[in-house]
Specification:
- There is one protein chain.
- It contains 6 helices and 12 strands.
- By secondary structure, the protein is an alpha+beta fold.
- The chain has a single domain, classed as Porin, CATH 2.40.160.210.
- It has a 12-stranded antiparallel sheet.
- It starts with 8 loop residues before the first helix and ends with a strand.
Length: 295
């Protein structure tokens, strides 16, 4: 069932964040929302870089089908990010762009994105997992009421921030126990406000939310989470494939599993489905997950 969500200031901030200032034909400037974070959220940089690349693809009807990226330095939310786009190739049906995000005269992120004309072809997909519907799960307001009163201050602060994306995990065991669990999870996600029905922008919002919760899944098997202050966690790389047009007017199921953790790194795969079971995107990410050095 689709919906027309009410406007939400946090969603409006995200849309403004993705609306980059064009400085030159292939040079853009993006800003970060001032929400008290010490570093820029990786999904923001992915989304902004995709917007920058997309705006240099002039042929109509050519949409992103994949991106591959590396985070090389933490982003500073107090200063703008410059996105420098290189036109690698404009072919008969594909276009390739390389984007470097720069702060303080140094690259913090780089990405290669490929765009393709729409065309027909073979069709198949894996089935969506059989999970409870989002209406049968606790919402964020109920989660806060039931569990946040006794939670540590940093966990309460995380959940109480206004956010453009609502999360509704199928299982809550990981958040409230130290048990070592199977490294997989299913989370319903949706935007908390309307997103214009413009395919390029919807792809950027989908890229933004694709960076959420992945590192957590790789920690399930170790009885801990990204909220553990003794851990050093950060996204290292990120890949995404857009199989079908993004649809953001209803809940999406983000199904994740972590096949491996080693060498201070955890790897997680994700599949994003519409409520009706259509697979619209696949994601893979490796992240830093290690104990902080102590004296």
């Amino acid at each position: 069932m689709s919906r027309q969500p009410a406007k939400n200031p946090a969603m409006d901030v995200l849309l403004e964040t993705l609306d980059l200032e064009r400085l030159e034909s292939r040079l853009f400037r993006g800003k970060s929302p001032q929400v008290g974070w010490q570093r820029v959220f990786g999904g923001q940089v992915i989304g902004q870089a995709l917007v920058a690349a997309t705006r240099t693809v002039e042929k109509a009807g050519r949409f992103v089908h994949s991106l591959h990226a590396y985070f090389v330095r933490p982003g500073d939310p107090s200063v703008p990010i410059i996105y420098d786009v290189e036109n690698i190739r404009d072919g008969g049906s594909f276009a390739t762009r390389r984007v470097v995000a720069i702060q303080h005269d140094k690259p913090i992120y780089f990405m290669t994105a490929s765009f393709q004309d729409e065309e027909d072809g073979f069709e198949h997909q894996v089935p969506m997992p059989d999970v409870p519907q989002p209406e049968d799960l606790l919402g964020e307001a109920e989660l806060k009421e039931r569990f946040m009163t006794e939670a540590p201050e940093h966990i309460r602060a995380y959940w109480q921030r206004p956010r453009p994306i609502e999360l509704r995990p199928v299982s809550l065991a990981h958040y409230f126990s130290g048990d070592k669990l199977e490294p997989r999870q299913n989370i319903w996600v949706r935007t908390t406000g309307p997103v214009p029905a413009e395919r390029h922008l919807q792809a950027a919002v989908l890229a933004y939310l694709s960076d959420m919760t992945l590192l957590d899944t790789s920690l399930f098997a170790h009885g801990t989470s990204v909220l553990d202050r003794t851990l050093q966690v950060a996204s290292l790389d990120h890949a995404m494939w857009f199989h079908r047009p993004p649809v953001l007017d209803d809940w999406l199921l983000y199904s994740q599993d972590s096949p491996s953790a080693s060498g201070g790194r955890g790897m997680t795969r994700g599949a994003i489905f519409t409520r009706s079971g259509t697979l619209i995107a696949s994601v893979a990410q490796e992240g830093l997950i290690r104990k902080k050095a102590t004296d």
